[in-house]
Amino acid sequence: MQTQELKNVASQVRRDILRQVHACQSGHPGGSLGCTDLLVGLYFNSMKLAQDANGNVVFNMSGANEDIFYLSNGHISPLLYSILARRGYFPVKELATFRQLNSRLQGHPTPHEHLEGIRIASGSLGQGLSVAIGTAQAKKLSKDSSTVYCLMGDGEQNEGQVWEAAMYAPHHQVDNLIAFIDENGQQIDGPTEKVMSNRDLEAKYKAFGWTVLRMDGNNMEEVVATLAHAKSLLGQGSPIMILMKTEMGAGVDFMMGSHKWHGVAPNDQQLADALAQLNETLGDY
Amino acid sequence: MKFTYETKKDTRSGFGAGMEYLSQNNPKVVALCADLIGSLKLEAFIKNSPERFFQTGIAEANMIGISAGLAIGGYIPFATTFANFGTGRVYDQIRQSVAYSGKNVKICCSHAGLTLGEDGATHQILEDIGLMKMLPGMVVINPCDYNQTKAATIAIAEYEGPVYLRFGRPVVPVFTPENQKFEIGKAIHLIEGTDVTILATGHLVWEAIQAAEILEEKGIKADVLNIHTIKPLDTAAILASISKTGCVVTAEEHQINGGLGDSVAQFLSQNRPTPQEFVGVNDSFGESGKPADLMKKYGLNAAAIVEKSIKAISRK
C-alpha cells in the first residue's frame, strides 16, 4: 500500500477510535491515537498475514507461517479493534459493541470471546513481551521464518517482568522478534520522567543485547521505512527494539500535548470537533 | 485390600520419569525451568530433547508468559519450578496469560507443602491448590506417589487446556501400580468401608491408608478414596461413598482454607449435608524441620486422620 493510502486508513482508524470511545463513554483514546500510524503501517503494509484464495485475511490461533502482532499495552484496544476490523478479521459494524455487555470487544483485548485476531489477553501490563518471545521461539522450533511483533508502553517499562523478558530474548538469540516501545512520555500519574524515569531506554536495551532503532511514530513515511529497515536486521542473533516517539492524541489538535485524554471519552461536541479534523476515508461504521 | 510397598521415591522423580517418556513420545511437549533443573528431575528430558528445553533463569513471571506464547505456537509447554514460585509468585501471569487466555500450559511444581522441610515457610506454599482452583478452567492435580505422578504427567500432555500439577520433595512409599493409566478427575477407590469416608490427596493418601488400618483394629471400617484431582472434583464418587458412610474426613498437605476439604464441603453443603472433619494446616505458616516432624506437628499424618475420623463418626 502506498503511503498516502496508509494515511487514509489511519484517518479512518482514528475516527473509529473516537467513535468507539464516545459511544460507551469509556476507554483510552490518547494512546490509541498515538499508536495508530504504527499499527496501520504494520497491518496494512509490513506484516505478512495469512489469506485465503480471494486475498481475504483468515485467522488461525497458531499464526503458523504468518507474522504475528501482540499488543502488550492492552488499554489501547479501540485502536487494535479498528485495525483488525478494517483489515477484515471481523465485521466493521461490530466496533459499535465496544465495551458493551455481551460484546467480543472487551475493554481490554482477550481471546476468551473468540474475537478473530486476538491471541492473548493483555492489559495487565508487562506480560506481552514474554508471550511474544515464546511465540517467536515456537516459530524457530517449527522452522517457520515469519516474524513476531510486540508493542509496549513506556510507562509499562516500570513492570519487572519486562526486564526479565528483555534479558531472556538476547540470551536465547530470539532474532525473529521486533518490539516497540511507545514513548509518549506519559503515564496515569503524570509524565513518565516524573512518575518513574526510564532514563535511557536505548542504553538499557543495548546493554541487554538488543539492536535498538528509533523512529517518529507519527510520521508514516518514517514508520514504513523503519519497519523495512528492522526487517532487514532480523536473523542476525539479536532481537530488535524500536523506540517510537509519539504524541498522545495524535491527529486531534486538542487531544495532543497532554495526558488528559489517556482514559477519558470525548463528549458529543468534542467528538464532532475531533471528527472534523479527520477525513472519513473508508466510511464510518 | 492390603497396601504394601517395596521402595520409597520422591514424586518429583515420577514427574521426571514422565517427562523422559514425553521427550521420546510427544514431539509437541516443551519444558521450561527457572534455574531448578535438578530439583525438577528434568535431566533426562533435556538430554533427549535439548532443543525443546528453555532455561528461563530465576524469572518465573517471564517463564509463564513464554509458555503462553509457545502454546499459541502449537507446543505443549510444561513450566516448572517450586510450587511457591510457580503459583503464588506469578498468580497474575497465570490468570491473564494462561487461564483467561485459555492456553494449553502445564504448570508443574515440586516442593509443595510442608514436606519441603528445612528451607522453611518462605518456600512451603500451602495455598497453591486454592489459588489455582479458583481460576476458571484450571485443572488441579496432586498425585500421591512416584508411579501416579509419572502417569499424571503423561496424561496431562494429552489433555487440551491449562493444568496445575503439584508434587513434592521427600521420598514416600510407592504403592500404586507401575504404568497405571491416569484419568483426570476420576477418584480412585482404595479401601472399602461403611463407617467413615476418608478423602485424601497427595502425600496424605498413604497416611489415609495407614489410618484405615489403625481404625480397622478399632473395629471401624473406613472407605478411602484417592482424590488425585481436586478440580474437577469427582463428586459422583464422593457422593457414592458418603451415601454408605454418612460422614467424611478430608486430608491434604495444604491450608484447610481453599483446599480439597473446602471443595468437598462446598459440594456436600449443597447436595448432601454431611458431618465433615478437616486434616490440613489451620490458617498458619509452616517452619523449618524434618518433613515427618513437620507433618506430625501440624497434624497431617495417619494419627491425625484417625482422630478426626472418630470425631466425624461421633457427629453422625
TrEMBL record, chain A:
The keyword Iron-sulfur does not apply. It holds the Pfam family Transketolase_N. Belongs to the transketolase family. It is an enzyme of class 2 (transferase). GO terms for molecular function: transketolase activity. Signal peptide: none annotated. The keyword Transferase applies. Its EC number is 2.2.1.1. Its cofactor is thiamine diphosphate. InterPro entries: THDP-binding, Transketolase_N. Keywords: Thiamine pyrophosphate, Transferase. This is Transketolase. Gene3D superfamilies: 3.40.50.970. It comes from Aquirufa nivalisilvae.
